[in-house]
Amino acid sequence: EPTFMAHPVFNNGLQANINLGTVKEAGFAFDFTLDLKGSQELHFMHLGKTTDVSVKGNWRTPSFDGRYLPDERRMDTAGFKAHWRMLYYNRPYPQQWVVDNNLLTDESKLANASFGLKLRLPVDQYQKVTRTSKYAILIVLLTFVSLFLTEVIRKQRIHPFNYALIGAALVIYYTLLLSFSEQMGYNLAYIIASAATIGLVSVFIASLLKNKAAAGLFAVILSVIYLFIFVIIQLEDLALMIGSIALFIIVALLMYFSRKINWDKH
Fold first, then answer.
1. 3-state secondary structure (DSSP) of residue 21
2. Are residues 46 and 176 in the same domain?
3. pLDDT along the chain (266 residues), means of 10
4. In what order do the strands lie in the sheet with 41-45?
5. Three-state SS for 29?
6. Are residues 159 and 141 in the same domain?
7. I need a labelling partner for 59 at 20 to 30 A (CA). Which of 6, 131, 143, 265 fits?
8. CA quadruple 45, 67, 26, 56: dihedral positive or negative?
9. What is the distance between the alpha carbons of residues 82 and 116, in angstroms, rounded to a whole number?
10. What is the C-alpha to C-alpha distance for residues 140 and 169, in angstroms, rounded to an integer?
């Protein structure tokens, strides 16, 4: 039943009356079934002399948090299992106390005694689009650097207005990605938006440079860049490491291809 005491131990919750006069042993066992709906997280309090908690569920992306992490945990496509076991040595509460019911409402003590998990939502299409948009500056910068090197190597000037048009196409790409992903999912939308942008920019560069081979090479460069971003977006745990290695390789390639350029003549 709901808590109704004049001085409750907790601010709110459920309680059960137990006749301790009938308990002859040092302790007693009890269990109950509680159905929870619409919950985003589940936390426990480390109050016992030994707190032993086992949790399992069919949620594939739990996030364990709180003062104590699980001693054992397993996550796969079928769900998760986790087990905690703590002794009273690292508990912020005494074994017993009198009168001071505010002890269990102290925010700092609650934070130091609670543990559990959150049911984290997997990355959806909007989160993927948001993560993709964070690489916009990188894509535009790499595209402009590649175009500038092409301009220098071929000794053929490209007007800044043309750079602006290419930049506009690269920015509109994210609008295409968002609108398509709402209708057909992120992966297919990424392929369509990337192919359309790469095709548009490549055809435009071919008309500027009057060279289909250079435009084809530029299309390959753009394809590699968009493929690189797509791989990073699909990764979660290894995204930072893979991205850092790829950026290092890109810088190394730029250094290699620009080493023989005589910048004094440009």
1. helix
2. no
3. 54 71 70 78 86 89 87 88 88 74 72 86 74 83 82 78 89 89 87 92 86 83 87 77 84 80 65
4. 41-45, 114-119, 62-66
5. coil
6. yes
7. 131
8. positive
9. 9
10. 10
